[in-house]
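One record is kept unedited as follows:
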Amino acid sequence: MGLPSNLSPDEASPEWMNKGDNAWQLTSATLVGLQCVPGLVILYGGMVKKKWAINSAFMVLYAFASVLICWVGWGYRMSFGDKLVAFWGKPSVTSDEKYLLRQAFLGYFPTATMVFFQFVFAAITPILIAGALLGRMNFIAWMMFVPLWHTFSYTIGAFSIWCPDGWLSKLGVIDFAGGYVIHLSSGVAGFTAAYWTEQRQRFPPNNILMMLAGAGLLWMGWTGFNGGALYTASTDASLAILNTHVCTATSLLTWLVLDIAVSGKPSVIGAVNGVVQSWAAILMGLISGSVPWYTMTILHKKIKLLKHVDDTFAVFHTHALAGILGGILTGLFAVPKLCRLFYLVPEWERYIGLAYGLQTGRTSAGLRQMGAQLAGIGFIACLNIVMTSLVCLFIKLIVPLRLEEGVLQIGDDAIHGEEAYVLWDDDKRYENAQVNSAYDADENPSVVSKTLSELQMV
C-alpha cells in the first residue's frame, strides 16, 4: 500500500523531510519572532517614559532587521558552519540554493528552516541587551553595537555550545533553548554595556496595559522558543512546552507573593520582569521567581557594583542570573530518559543530572555534568564581559555611547523628530522641539509652564 499522494516524496518534498516537523519548526520560529516584533516592541514602548517610547521600540525593530542581514551574510555559518577554531565557525554567506534546500544538520527539514529558526534566537539576544540601555544610548552607537556584538560575541557562544563541533557541545553542556547562549549572554552583555554607557534619567512606565500586552506576547512566544528547540514535533516537545508554562506561571506567582509579603502591594512591573520533570519545573519556577526577586529588590541596594551600574530593566537579574540558575538546576535535575529523547545520540547516557546520578549510583557522571554546566557559565560570562567591553570602547572612538544631555531632556522628538503620543493637532505644534515636548513638571517645570501658557494663547 503506497503513501497518500500528498505525502509521497517529490522534488519539493524529498524523502528525508518530515512535513510535520518542518511545519512545526517554521511555526515555532514565527512564535519566537513575535516575541521580538511586536512583543518586545510593545513591552519596551510601554515600560519607558513617554518621551522614549519611539526610540525604545525602534531599537528593537532595528536590531531585528540588522541581525537578519548579519545572519544570512556571515553569522549563521560562524555559528553552525565549518569549524574555524574550537569555539568559532568560518564566516560565509548563507544564500546558496543548494545549501539552503539540503537537510539541516539536525532535524528532518531543510537548512533554510534551520537558518530562520536560529535567526530569531540570534535576533532576540541583542534586543534583550537593549533592555539595559533604554533611555540613554546614542541610536547611532546602537546601530554599530548590534552587528559588532552579534559577530564577535553571539556567534562564538552559539558555535561553542550549540554546534556539534563546538568545544562546550563536545564537553556535554546542556543548553536546551538558550539559557546560556541567549539569557546569560544578554544579561552579562547588557550589564557590561550599561556600565560603559553610564547613568540615565529615572522614569516610570508610560502605559502599563501596553506593557502587559507585550509581556503576554513574550510569554506565549515561549511555546515556540522551547517547543521548537527539539527540532521535531515530538512527545518531548509537548513536555517542554508544558514545563515552560508551568515554570513561568510559578515564577510569576512567586514574585507576586514576595512583593505582597514585603511591600503589601502586588507589583505588575515586577511580575512581568525542557529536560526536566514537571515537578522539577515547578521547583525551578519557585527558585527563578525568588532568587532574582531577592537580588533585584534587596541585594541590588547593598552591593556597590550593582548600585553603580544603571541596568534599565534589570536584565542582569532577570536574564543573566536566571540563565545561571537554569543551567545549574539543569545540571541537577536533567533526566537521562528525557535527555535521550532530546539528543538522540549514542552517548546520551552521559547527560544525567547530579540528583539522578546520586540516585542511580552514577555520581561521577552527575558531577561531570554539573562541572560542564559550570564551565559553560564561566565561558559565556567571561566572553561577554570582554567582547562587550571591547565593542563599546571601539564605538566610543567613533561616536559617543551616551546621548547628549540636551537630547536626553527632549527624547524621541530630538532623536527621530516624532512623538509617540500627539497631545494636540500637528498643524498647531510648535517648531521649537524643546517647547514642543511636554516634560514632567518635576523634571523641567519652567518648560512645562511655558508650554501650557502658549497653548492657552492658541
The chain is about 65% helix and 0% strand. Confidence is low (pLDDT under 50) at residues 426-458.
